[in-house]
Design brief:
heterodimer; A: Rossmann fold; 8-stranded mixed beta sheet; 12 helices; B: 131 residues; alpha+beta; Alpha-Beta Plaits; 2 domains; two-stranded antiparallel sheet; elongated; binds thiamine diphosphate; binds iron/sulfur cluster; binds magnesium ion
Chain lengths: 320, 131
Amino acid sequence: MSEMKKIKNLKEFSTSADRFEGANLLCPGCAHSIIVREVLNATNDDLVLAASTGCLEVCTAVYPYTSWDASWIHIGFENSSTAVAGAEAMYKALKIKGRLKQPDRNPKFVAFGGDGASYDIGFQWISGCMERNHDMMYIVLDNEVYANTGGQRSSSTPIGSSATTTPSGSVSYGETKNKKDMMSIMAAHNIPYAAQVAPNKWKDMVKKIQKGFATEGAVFINAVSPCTTEWKFDPKDTMHLTDLATDSLVFPLYEVIDGHELNITYRPKEKDIVPVEEYLAAQGRFKHLFKDQYKYLIKEWQERVDANWVYLNRREEARV
Amino acid sequence: MANTGWDEFEIGAMLRTFEGEISDIATTLQEDRKYTQNSSFSASVADWRIEKPVFNKDYCIDCQFCWIYCPDISIISRDKKMIGIDMDHCKGCGICVEVCPTNPKSLLMFPEVADEEREIENWPAKEKKEK
Ligand SMILES: Cc1ncc(C[n+]2csc(CCOP(=O)(O)OP(=O)(O)O)c2C)c(N)n1
Ligand code: SF4
Ligand code: SF4
Ligand code: SF4
Ligand SMILES: [Mg+2]
């Protein structure tokens, strides 16, 4: 294994030479690229990357431009996972046969996909990659909606969110289905490492990404990615929204090792926990929930988040 | 670069981001890289901006919050110091201003047409914390 990049603090991290470039076409304030930067800067090793169709792919590969300074495969909506798995399998085969030109380079294999690409369309492909335990990392940029095609709901869209295919109005509060618990599903493949991350907690994120890179076998990462366009907030507030997401425990940060050992990695102090209502109020997609008719849903939201937090804590305690 | 229609380029075509042989890009800073015209680094999104961030180094404590949270690789930090903004790639989102912890802030948004030197001269004073 190659040496892990040393990142003790933010000053040290800021000496990184980015391998992701500007003048891509992501919206101003888009969290996708903040996440991508934190991931790529976590290592100095060579990278073999792919992205499923979605905002990240479309906006960083507008022919004749590319925003990637690493091997990057332009592929379909559903199969960034298998593209990277294929590259990884080929690499392994060439290594065994002694045919690698630079056998000491130790590249890392990473696929990115949106929640639409991951929770829905590419679901079985990812499942296959995890089950075969490829030595790769799959990262979901979870903005809870099909952002690139205009905000259709996905199975990651949470209850009460107004999406273009589940619009709110006088007879509907928007999405009626619970968000799919992708972390549990992926951990159930008994992969060596799965983790939920958020770009505001960069240290937690870098630690988990480095742990993932050091892991032999399949790694699944779910990254919360606030979308200024579809969540409807001002672009300057992306990090504020991410803070609300982690500090309200709507997006708890934790990891699952070998499919069962769960560790909570960020535990806000009791007094710093933000009411879910504040998280919802900061986003246009939940605006209608504050009408008398739908207010009961805010209470239900809080109860769901509380129950999930209790569940994660009990899982952590039980060590099973 | 000349535009190429979707039906004109080869399947399996490859874009090269750098001229010649490259190794260890991860430890080569942007100013030392030989980008080709295919890298979006060679392009600009400066005309997206309505407002621009202005940097006043007098108050900066080099915490690097702006560096880590800028989505567009537009905060230039070298040797652990924030030294300026890449105005070709900044989209004017304002995140850097929001996350800057100093008082007064070391980064503020101004209309794109504003005169930078004058804004720095008239920089707001330290804000008193309400009790
Ligand atoms: C097989 C296929 N179906 C549909 C599309 C159209 N399409 C392109 S991007 C996209 C939405 C992507 O949503 P998501 O994966 O959540 O990524 P986001 O844009 O939100 O980051 C869709 C439906 C496609 N490119 N390929
Ligand atoms: S629509 Fe959302 S995810 Fe897509 S580029 Fe804009 S902010 Fe990013
Ligand atoms: S305004 Fe946005 S794009 Fe420009 S430097 Fe600040 S954070 Fe980066
Ligand atoms: S966030 Fe503010 S204080 Fe920190 S490095 Fe940037 S400009 Fe300087
Ligand atoms: Mg999405």
